[in-house]
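Purpose: get a first structural picture of the assembly so the mutagenesis plan has something to point at.
Setup: two entries, given in the order below. No constraints added.
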Amino acid sequence: MSFLDFLQGVQDFLNALGSFVLLPIFIFIFAIALGTKLGRAFRSAVVIGVAFVGINLVIGLMWNSLTDVSQAMVNNLGIQRDIVDVGWPSAAAIAFGSSVGLWVIPIALAVNIVMLVLRLTKTLNVDVWNFWHFAFIGSLIVSATGKLELGLVAAAIMAALMLFFADWTAPAVQDFYNLPGISIPHGTSSAYVPLAIPLNWVIDQIPGLRDLDADPEAIQKTFGPTFGDPMILGLIIGLILGILGFFPDIAESGFTQFLADVLKLGVNLAAVMVLLPRMVQILMEGLIPISESAREFMQKRASGREVYIGLDSAILIGHPSVISASLILVPISILLSVILPGNRVILFADLAVIPFVVAIFAPITRGNVVRIVIIGTVAMAVGFFFANSLAPLMTESAVAANFDIPEGAAMIVSIADGFLPTPWVFTTLVASLQWIGLIILIALLAVVLFFYLRNPEGWERAAGAPGGSAAGGEAPAPAGGTD
Amino acid sequence: MSKEKVVLVACGTAIATSTVVAKAIEEACKEAGIPVRTRQCKAAEVPTLAKEADLIVTTTPVAQDLGVPVIQGLAFLTGIGKDQVLQQIIEELKKD
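Result (structure tokens, whole complex):
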């Protein structure tokens, strides 16, 4: 047996293991390298493997249930809704389970250290969990091009881009949410900032509309019990989809069969809404030791510098304006999914993450619920375009990450991050231009960073930071090219 | 053996940051010999679930005056001042 045969054998073995085994092994190695104790690192690696098995089971249940009903809708009603929103828990698992996901933790840490040393960022991103957004874009690019190296570089660029967004929005976030020293390098929350700033400015120019606001408490009381409870929401969506899909068959199947099918779908989808987050909690638990070690490792190297600590936008979601605007955006988004021409996406699991999409709109609009809803509606409407376009790549990435896919399955997508411009721009550029696409992305980031660093206060005021004249006024045009 | 205490841990989704906080509290209480059960929830659920809790630890803004002490848990995420917050939590749980 030659050496090449041996290498090929190793490669085949690694392929046979699949992500559910490989990711735990990689996490174990990185955790040890960052100084985690042996026993703790080992246990967390096993927990991550367990979480992947659990997520796979729940995704299977969701995928089967929704594929059946979406086929029924196509056959019986001619409604083409064959792309299923499987939610960010699935997206995160696919991203971490991808070939890029294996390497994303050291890559993102390295990018952060380099940018801190070069003084290109003030943010120390300790939110290791949300490195999945970087891996997500990387894994889509690997699916589009078949080249791992392109995906890895794209993930690195995305990590840098999120540090820029974190710095840019930090003074506004710190002031509005009263979180001194914190910034938010979160893929889902940053993406629509360049849309929100000009839209808020436009609203400012419209008499009448600019004075409207709504009472968050009343909204929460009205919408909270249904749209604020994912389990109930899952049940309702299941019942409605079931009636739409299976009712035309009722003559053939009989009423009792119809009723059973509808109720089963309702309970299954309610179960997915409860179980999927639980599975992700397990994944999260597994990542805690490496996340803590990474934080200590980074903080030791950044000591003596004034840095922002980059955290998950989950810490912003409790704000009443964000909660209530998101509650209103749930029915609006479902309506959009029905009426938008050419749309094939059924919204489902990610209806619960709309707060993440709008969280940074709150400082920009000074917490005005009406404005958050307006900007959120535009963002979601645009998002459907990106989602329909990204679904084939995301489905392919799920297959590549070893998730079980039922026969003749629907395609998948998720609001986080499939409804965002960032992955679409990255994949479109890199799929057609390969390395040149990546160079264009780096150049765009460099240009934006250059203008931001020349006038940070102006940019930060535009994003809602206090001080100076009213937000929007003399602010530089938010560079549309960033994402 | 004192009665098991219930700590309600709140964040935006009841998934991500609250898991970090809940695990840290469980580990610290185990070391301190305090029997404790954590329950994760979303910020919006806090007012309803507060009745069943002895202490609320949160990483996101929640309503005040719930009749239960509320402790800010951001330190668990930033790592800055984590030990003091843990100490505060343990002292709160040792009462009565």
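Strands of chain B lie at 5-11, 36-42, 55-58, 70-72.
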